[in-house]
Design brief:
This protein is an alpha/beta fold. The chain has one domain: LmbE-like (Rossmann fold), CATH 3.40.50. The protein has 9 helices and 7 strands; from the N terminus they run βαβααβαβαβαβαααβ. The strands form 2 sheets. It has a 5-stranded parallel β-sheet, sandwiched between helices. Strands 6-7 form a two-stranded antiparallel sheet.
Length: 228
């Protein structure tokens, strides 16, 4: 085994959309990968579709937990390597100290060689909180670990990654990972998130995500930001 890798996902699906190809690649290379799902994702329908019944937030929480288990299995991550912190969706910022304590303990016990977590410029509050929490935990432990930030909700939307690519030539603060051999696995894992890609409620007109959202995430390279 080459060592342990930990991926921190603020919500069920961030791990797959953000770095699913890299997860599969790391496992193929002999690394042990664990995924820490930080919130339960219960409010996705309420926040984006104004739906609070069929499914209820509590029902959606269970649906998304099952989905992340199936997606992770496709990527090669066994269920015993999934850690659910079960904080309420959207509440990471309100529970910084408690979450940080749990994350610190996870890092202390597993002592990973690489850690993946959300990009500091992602716009979602849970992603911003996750970045701060993981960075603080690594600093407190004094871990000598490689840190990679993945972007799902970039601050500057579609233009952000393009701008960053240009600037990275000067700053050298981006890492590109060739995941071309694992795109099919990543797509299969993404499609396990049926609650996002299909209509599962009588109150829905359209799914949360469009087919183009899937295609846009299936690049031959996954990009990661590193702090210098």
């Amino acid at each position: 085994m080459n060592g342990k890798v930990i991926v921190f996902a603020p919500h069920p699906d961030d791990e797959t959309f953000g770095c699913g190809g890299t997860i599969a690649k790391k496992i193929a290379e002999g690394y042990e990968v664990s995924i820490v799902v930080m919130t339960d994702g219960r409010y996705a329908f309420l926040k984006m579709l104004n739906i609070d019944t069929d499914p209820t937030p509590e029902e959606l929480k269970e649906i998304r937990k099952k989905e992340v288990k199936r997606a992770a299995k496709i990527l090669g991550v066994p269920e015993e390597n999934l850690i659910f912190l079960d904080f309420e969706d959207g509440k990471l910022q309100d529970n910084i100290e408690e979450v940080e304590g749990k994350v610190t303990e996870i890092l202390r016990v597993h002592c990973p060689v690489e850690v993946y977590f959300p990009y500091k410029n992602d716009t979602h509050p849970d992603h911003q909180a996750a970045y701060t929490i993981v960075k603080n935990a690594i600093s407190k432990l004094g871990l000598l670990v490689k840190e990679y930030q993945y972007s799902v909700f970039h601050k500057y939307s579609r233009l952000g990654p393009i701008i960053d690519k240009i600037l990275s030539g000067l700053r050298r603060n981006m890492v590109r990972v060739d995941v071309s051999a694992f795109i099919s696995k990543k797509e299969a894992a993404i499609r396990e998130y049926k609650s996002e890609l299909t209509v599962i409620s009588k109150k829905q007109k359209n799914p949360l995500l469009k087919e183009k959202d899937v295609k846009n995430s299936l690049n031959k390279e996954e990009l990661f930001y590193i702090d210098r």
